[in-house]
Amino acid sequence: YVLGVEAMKKMSTSNVLIVGLKGLGCEIAKNVVLAGVKSVTLYDPSPVAISDLSSQFFLHQEDVGKPRAKVSAPRLAELNQYVPVSVLDQELTPEVIATFKCVVVTDLPQQQKLEISEAARQHNVCFISTETRGLFGYAFNDFGSEFLVIDPTGEEPLSGMVASIDQGQEGIVTCLDETRHGLEDGQFVTFSEVQGMTELNECEPRKVKVLGPYSFSIGDTSSLSAHKRGGLFKQVKMPVTQNFKSFKEALETPEFFFSDFAKFDRPAQLHVGFQALHAFAAANDGRMPRVGNDEDANEVIRLANEINDAWSQKTELDDKLLKQLAYQATGDLSPMVAVFGGLVAQEVLKACTGKFTPINNFMYFDALECLPVDFEPSEADLKPEGSRYDGQVAVFGRAFQEKLANYRGFLVGSGAIGCEMLKNWAMMGIASGENGVIHVTDMDTIEKSNLNRQFLFRPADVGQLKSETAARAVVKMNPDITGKIVTHQERVGPETESVYDDDFYEHLDGVTNALDNVEARKYMDKRCLFYRKPLLES
After folding, report:
1. Among candidates 327, 436, 433, 430, which has minimal Cα distance to 381?
2. Residue 184 in contact with residue 210, Cβ under 8 Å?
3. What is the DSSP letter of 19?
4. Which residues have C-beta within 8 Å of that of residue 228, sequence separation ≥ 6?
5. Residue 273 CA neighbour count, 13 Å, CB half
């Protein structure tokens, strides 16, 4: 429905390679498999570590020590029977890379990324690099020097009725009854049912110059017949060719896609910071800076200044920002992985179909607002202890992890958004403590049409209750929440206030909506206001 038939046909001929199967690689693979490409190939021969369980939802405790890609492949394959998922057992040579439409690299040293990106560019293969480090992340695209975007917006073509068309150098078109045309400069239109200036009917697309909300120019019409009356204009989607820099060139002369204009100076600083992290790892046998360690953080700051001094686009660096990046370099947060996993999977679909405008060059993002004000934990509070939550503790500390473990929440809805919420909550260890509990309600049963986006469900689950099935699925992902999820089938509303009563709400810490029903959302808003409970609306 969103992509259209032609785009789906292109996806069905596209082979995608995903390198690195920690949390981020798995999230991207999950989304791409569900979307329905021709095939997905995984490459990650590294053994599973206990820290991978922070965000990699298809790895279990018993998988520790086994190759990541081989363990993940059969579980990803269950998501879509029409998409073969295989494991690449050979090296990433240029000849191997040439067999794919798109290559996504998530967890490799910088030098290997550069080598893969060069091979991809030589063979006209779309290349994507992405990383998350605690509350920081980036995505980079190189789709070649002449990537054709068939439909930049994906929106329906605009159309409208014509009141008049001037016969002159500018060819001014005025819309009927002061109706806004909605066009933008540089777009193209054609015409039909025009009386008088009949040469415009089904003409070659003419470029638009917007003169106002109700008029636009289409260029010289002086040689055409005089317009008598009427006519319809219709926008024509014209392909756009985009030129992408190579990864190597973009590291030196980056362009930034801004996700937050309130942080206009951040992307350039993070660009230097991420390079400093990789320089630190290269000098320390692949090891990232230790969590909360000032010595390592100061070395990252020194390297960042060194890189910045030699950079043609020198920027002003904030030592506090770089220190946070160094502290969180080993952080692994399921919500950040989910954000970048969804974003990068969309870029993969753009690479395969040419539909929608891709990110050109780098996009950096940080969510430092998530840290408490004046948050200064000790290195001891952040250090790993061989737990599946070490990636999260590395960012927020052990005291915060204990709060999450004893959180008592109510999730309203376990469909597409609800499945993602429960998965993230399971990875975060929410309600895994002695006093923690998750209440989930959903009155619906699983339908076959749900399977392409509600990834906790499988074909064998069709006909079963969503809340119960979703709860069973996430308990497999994290056994720590066994017995901690209470499922309900009663819808929220005035008629169920005997179920969700005063005692029920008084024992909650917060409520999360995952609804597609406006009335139910309004009702939950009123209940949370009445009981003074935080509400997350999504």
Report:
1. 327
2. yes
3. E
4. 195, 196, 197
5. 32
Q: How far apart are CA 22 and CA 427, in angstroms?
A: 13
pLDDT 10s per residue in the chain (538 long)?
Answer: 678 888 899 999 999 999 999 999 999 999 999 999 999 999 999 999 999 999 999 999 999 999 999 999 999 999 999 999 999 999 999 999 999 999 999 989 999 999 999 999 999 999 999 999 999 999 999 999 999 999 998 889 999 999 999 999 999 999 988 789 999 999 999 999 999 999 999 999 999 999 999 999 999 999 999 999 999 999 999 999 999 999 999 999 999 999 999 999 999 999 999 999 999 999 999 999 999 999 999 999 999 999 999 998 999 999 999 999 999 999 999 999 999 999 999 999 999 999 999 999 999 999 999 998 888 888 889 999 999 999 999 999 999 999 999 999 999 999 999 999 999 999 999 999 999 999 999 999 999 999 988 999 999 999 999 999 999 999 999 999 999 999 999 999 999 999 999 999 999 999 999 998 899 999 999 999 999 999 999 8
Residues 357 and 175: their CA atoms lie apart, in Å, by 29
Q: HSE, CB side, 13 Å, CA atoms: give it for residue 218.
A: 26
Q: Which residue has the tokens 């209470």?
A: 486
The rounded distance, in Å, linking the Cα atoms of 16 and 148 is 18
Per-residue tokens: 516: 């597609």
Provide CB contacts within 8 A for 501, sequence distance 6+. none
Q: What distance in Å separates the CA atoms of residue 388 and residue 280, rounded to the nearest whole number? A: 25
Residue pair 412/524 in contact by the 8 Å Cβ criterion: yes
Strands 126-133 and 136-142: antiparallel
Candidates 211, 131, 124; CA nearest to 165 is 211
Q: Longest C-alpha distance within the chain, in Å? A: 83
The pair of structure tokens assigned to 495 is: 């008629």
Q: What CA–CA distance (Å, rounded) separates 218 from 475?
A: 61
Nearest Cα residue to 137 out of 28, 31, 244: 28
Strands 206-207 and 240-242: unpaired
The Cα–Cα gap between 296 and 301 comes to 9
Distance (Å, rounded) from C-alpha 53 to C-alpha 48?
Answer: 9
Residue type, 178: E
Sign of CA dihedral 406, 407, 410, 411: negative
To the nearest 10 degrees (0 to 180), the angle between helices 266-283 and 110-122 is 110
Distance from C-alpha of 358 to C-alpha of 18, rounded to nearest angstrom: 18
Q: What b/e sequence results for 109-129 when a residue is b if at least 16 CB atoms lie within 10 Å of its CB, and e otherwise?
A: ebeebbbbbbbbbeeebbbbb
Give the integer Cα–Cα distance in Å for 39 and 84. 5
Task: Give residue for tokens 């279990």.
Answer: 60
